[in-house]
From TrEMBL:
Name under which the protein is recorded: Zinc finger CCHC domain-containing protein 7
Keywords: Metal-binding, Nucleus, Repeat, Zinc, Zinc-finger
Span of domain CCHC-type: 36-50, 143-158
Molecular function per GO: RNA binding; zinc ion binding
UniProt-listed PROSITE patterns: ZF_CCHC
Lineage: superkingdom: Eukaryota
Any one cellular-component term (Gene Ontology): TRAMP complex
GO BP annotations, alphabetical order: nuclear mRNA surveillance of mRNA 3'-end processing; nuclear polyadenylation-dependent CUT catabolic process; nuclear polyadenylation-dependent rRNA catabolic process; nuclear polyadenylation-dependent snoRNA catabolic process; nuclear polyadenylation-dependent snRNA catabolic process; TRAMP-dependent tRNA surveillance pathway
Species of origin: Nesospiza acunhae
Record localization: Nucleus, Nucleolus
Main location: nucleus
Amino acid sequence: VNWSISHKDLEAQISNYAGVRHSSMRYYRADKNVTCRNCHRPGHLSKNCPTPKKVPPCCLCAGRDHLQHSCPARFCLNCCLPGHYFRECLERAYWNKHCNRCDMKGHYADACPEIWRQYHLTTKPGPIQAAGSPSERAVSVYCYNCSRQGHLGYECSEKRMQGNMFPTSPFVYYYDDECDIRRRANRLKRKVADLQEAGLLPEQPETPL
């Protein structure tokens, strides 16, 4: 590892120690080798830049014509769909949701993690490959929430490390057939139509095939 000081820092006389107070280090003259992060020109720092400050980029899409609160790519933390915020969501709050598929709280069946977990044995197109029999639980299991032995994190009765998150079961209790997949797709289409009708989801342009 090369711990040598950069020659650019030496030329600019930059110090990381607050106790060092030299008049030559307080201001950046034009002959010092520093570059402004606002206009990318040498000789001064961005806080002293005469050029108007750049608009900060949106943290969601990196666009510079808006910020997060007005971003067209904003999404809801309740239903995870774009176009609206939690306070505008038509669904009930996630802490009042109950999944009829895995019997856990925090989501509905159409957003259950089991939907993608059920593909753990499927390696080619066609019907989902289901497990033959439920796997036996290992004796030496540990909880990720309380670190104790004998139970898994989703079964833990101790206070959660993240109070605003609900645990999910790591097991698959049901495997979808083609009819289940088709019915879920139709439900999601109706949900999208309802959100668009309420103005909470922007119209998506059709992608040409």
